[in-house]
Design brief:
The complex is a heterodimer. Chain A is α+β, with helices and mostly antiparallel strands. Helices cover 31% and strands 33% of the residues of chain A. Chain B folds into two domains: 103 residues, RNA polymerase sigma factor, region 2, helix turn helix motif (Rna Polymerase Sigma Factor, Chain: A, Orthogonal Bundle), CATH 1.10.1740; 85 residues, Winged helix-like DNA-binding domain superfamily/Winged helix DNA-binding domain (Arc Repressor Mutant, subunit A, Orthogonal Bundle). Chain B contains nine helices and no strands. Classes of the chains: A alpha+beta, B mainly alpha. The interface between A and B is large, with 36 and 37 residues.
């Protein structure tokens, strides 16, 4: 049974609910901004974006590497093939067959291949280097060569190369090829000198042999109809006895800066940077804040770091950056207390009091940047460089972003043929201002420090 | 509760799901949807406007940070309201509980004499009534709000305020009587005829 208390409570509830059920008030303006600063930042878009960028950089880097490796291989094949064919056509040698059958259609190759006869020994040392180095390339070439039953040997797949096109392959007779290779297979290894290798070898050969080798190499660069080749009489090249069994020195790659711009280079950098700031106080809040105090010129509190990784091609660098730094300063919020103090001259000054606030904000920025690097210098082991770039980065601790303009200078040193180490001063400046979290100020950072990095590229 | 609808999010569920993905635009729409009503609730539970602002902001921070745990997006209205009320309770637990436990509990005696009080309250300006509720001690104000306006039972109030049903009922009665006393002090008494 309901008592009078219950009835009264019911009536009271009805009237109060009626009064307050739809009661609304407006919150303070700016409440949402303050709430946002304390709410977990949205990460989905940012993570997808940077993840996509990372995947894009990696894939593009791999594709570019494969593409240019393929080009390089194709160019190498064409070079080797042309060299081999011209050598087949031009270099006189001795037919190894006892019958001494030296018909005009017989190409003379033993001198180059060094497989048959005494005459071949003359250039054995010279060709050994080329043979070793061309073994892989020759194998590829052989795969592309067809032995014609009627006429001779042709190379295919070289029309893409202008160099190869300008030097049409000359036919040799199938039977001659078989004889030239002696006990090898009919489509055996063709060995020839590449132009640069010829230079290398001639540099290490004294006197007439060097001259002859150079002549062969030069003449190999010119075209000659088969008819003329057929007319050339074979003669045995005189090889001095002391040259027999010469062991060519092994090619030893030197340590030097590789600046092949067409290659994709991989970059890794680390920087230590001191942060500075430009703080803008809006005019409407100028009377509410006072006595700003900033860190000293050099302090460990303002030291930050930056790590970068990316790719470079033709001097254009695309990199992902991760950096951390802190923004520290203090200021006073002016209150309504005033302090009247006398000075040395007996005059009184009114000083408005304030409540001191400390700002200590940590930035963890993830960014994507593009820059252009220029290198100059003549030393094979070191170069100077300058890099100018732009970067967009996002603070992982808040939903704010910054854009940067950066400049790096320094010197690169060769660590190996594949790797260069670079070091030098680095500076970056943000032309974009970000708003403070718990205050109305605008923050514009700039950072100065030292950057060191490694650059990996295939020579 | 009747709230305005957003053009972009065609249902409350889609709005909540977007907020669960931390979509800033959805958070803004969500905030706009609830801000006025929740500010009103905060004003009822808080002693001052400044404290109401603090409670409001704390509540929305909790809401946005925990909305991912909301299993039924359709129940967002009541979830938001409950979160705001719980935040207000926690706010005063945190700041005034110690003080209250050691303070003297005012012994308020008041007897129901007439239903005129209800009629008088009905005719009062909502602002004046709110001011009167705000003047109540924290514990009474909370219980009055919860039981008379937000419809919580004494059992629920006891659970939320960590007290027994009987204590919750007793607190309510004392709070109600104190409110009536305040009405009397304001010169609004049952024998006045409007």
């Amino acid at each position: 049974m309901r008592t009078s208390e219950d009835k009264f409570n019911e009536a009271l509830r009805d009237v109060l609910k009626r009064k307050f059920d739809d009661y609304e008030e407006q919150p303070k303006p700016g409440a949402l901004d303050r709430i946002r600063t304390r709410v977990k930042p949205a990460r989905t878009f940012r993570y997808w974006w940077f993840s996509g960028a990372l995947v894009l950089i990696t894939i593009s880097g791999l594709l570019l590497t494969r593409h240019f490796d393929g080009e390089h291989l194709a160019a190498g094949e064409a070079k080797n093939t042309v060299g081999a064919d011209v050598a087949v056509a031009k270099v006189p040698s001795v037919d190894a067959e006892p019958s001494g059958k030296k018909s005009s259609t017989q190409p003379v190759n033993e001198e180059i291949s060094g497989t048959n006869g005494n005459a071949a020994e003359a250039n054995a040392g010279v060709t050994a280097v080329a043979a070793r180095r061309n073994a892989q390339g020759a194998a590829v070439v052989l795969n592309r060569m067809k032995v014609s039953k009627e006429k001779g040997v042709f190379a295919t797949g070289l029309r893409d190369s202008p160099e190869a096109e300008s030097r049409q392959l000359h036919a040799v007779s199938h039977t001659t090829v078989s004889r030239w290779n002696g006990n090898r297979r009919a489509n055996g290894v063709q060995q020839a000198l590449l132009p640069d290798e010829t230079d290398y070898v001639t540099a290490h050969l004294p006197g007439t042999i060097a001259a002859e080798t150079a002549t062969h190499a030069d003449s190999a660069m010119t075209e000659m109809p088969l008819e003329e080749l057929d007319a050339i009489a074979l003669k045995e090249a005189p090889v001095p006895l002391h040259m027999r069994g010469v062991v060519a020195p092994r090619f030893k790659p030197v340590k030097r800066i590789v600046t092949n711009p067409a290659k994709v280079a991989w970059l890794v950098n680390a920087s230590v940077l001191h942060s500075y700031q430009i703080l803008t106080v809006p005019s409407f809040a100028a009377t509410d804040f006072q006595n700003f105090n900033f860190p000293t010129l050099f302090t460990s509190r303002s030291i930050g770091y930056k790590f970068s990784a990316g790719v470079e091609r033709r001097g254009i660098q695309l990199q992902l950056h991760y950096s951390g730094f802190r923004q520290t300063y203090s200021y006073e919020i002016a209150n309504n207390n005033y302090l009247v103090k006398p000075d040395d001259k007996g005059q009184y000054h009114t000083v408005r009091q304030g409540d001191r606030m400390e700002e200590n904000r940590r930035f963890s920025m993830l960014g994507l940047g593009i820059s252009r690097q220029l290198r100059w210098g003549h030393s094979p082991v070191s170069r100077f460089y300058a890099a100018l770039g732009a970067e967009y980065s996002h603070d992982l601790n808040s939903s704010q972003s910054l854009a940067w303009v950066n400049l790096g200078l320094g010197k690169q040193f060769a660590v190996s043929r594949h790797t260069a180490f670079s070091i030098g001063p680095y500076a970056e400046f943000s032309p974009v201002k970000v708003k403070g979290i718990a205050n109305p100020f605008y923050y514009q950072p700039y950072r100065v420090g030292i950057s060191a990095g490694l650059r990996f590229v295939r020579p | 509760m009747k709230f305005f609808r957003s053009n972009k999010y065609d249902s409350l569920a889609s709005l909540v799901k977007a907020c669960q993905k931390l979509d800033p635009r959805a958070q803004t729409v969500f905030y706009e949807r609830y801000k006025a009503r929740m500010t009103g609730i905060c004003r009822r539970y808080a002693k001052t406007v400044a404290e109401a602002d603090d409670i409001f902001q704390d509540a929305f921070v909790k809401i946005f940070n925990n909305i991912g745990n909301l299993q039924e997006p359709e129940a967002a209205d009541s979830w938001v309201k409950t979160t705001v009320i719980r935040t207000a309770i926690n706010y005063y637990n945190r700041t005034t509980r110690h003080e209250e436990m050691h303070g003297s509990i005012e012994n308020v005696e008041w007897h129901v004499e007439s239903d005129d009080y209800v009629r008088i309250i009905d005719q009062m300006n909502v602002r004046d009534l709110l001011d009167m509720i705000n003047e109540l001690p924290d514990k009474y104000r909370t219980v009055i709000n919860m039981h008379l306006i937000d419809g919580y039972t004494h059992t629920e109030i006891g659970e939320m305020l960590s007290m027994s049903d009987a204590t919750a009922r007793s607190q309510f009665m004392r709070g109600r009587n104190l409110l009536m006393k305040k009405l009397e002090k304001k010169g609004i008494v049952h024998h006045e005829n409007f």
